[in-house]
Amino acid sequence: MTEQAEPSGPQSPHPAELERARRLIREVPDYPSPGILFRDIAPLLADGQALRATVEALIAPFRGAFDVVAGLEARGFLLAGPAAYASGTGLMPIRKAGKLPRPAASARYALEYGTAEIEAHDDLPAGSRVLLIDDVLATGGTLIAARTLLAELGYVTAGTAILFEIDGLGGREAFGDPALHTVFHS
Q1: Of 24, 40, 76, 115, which shows the fewest CB atoms inside 10 Å?
Q2: pLDDT of 2 above 60
């Protein structure tokens, strides 16, 4: 495990900053398939103040409790990179099957609109504490698979932080972690 650097910058964003960031998330109906309401975080990512407030809100409950941040493909990467930087830790990508040159483990899961598989490398020491970060929690399949993947690799899930939780789809219940942290809810 690596030694965690001292955090820099603000550690708790002001509620008004977070509300402004939340308003930047756009809803796109029927994407990627009919009946799905996609949450487009691109406007939030393009706004420096909103991105900073969001990243600080994602990692605040877990500061000092993790060695590395794992970002789930693909939009989880966009949040995990800044989160790793802000916390002085490393970054672990969890990718879709076939995207890594030397996957060490994989896990299959169901989405609300299909199935997918994720993979990861085994570059960290056994017992490394990993903060999982993803953009949206819907049915929980991606997070369950990621947690399974981390355990298979010998890592400890130190926490799970989600940008946006879609209430009513059962993701929180399926994931089953009372410490699951979400910044925004639908």
Answers
A1: 115
A2: no
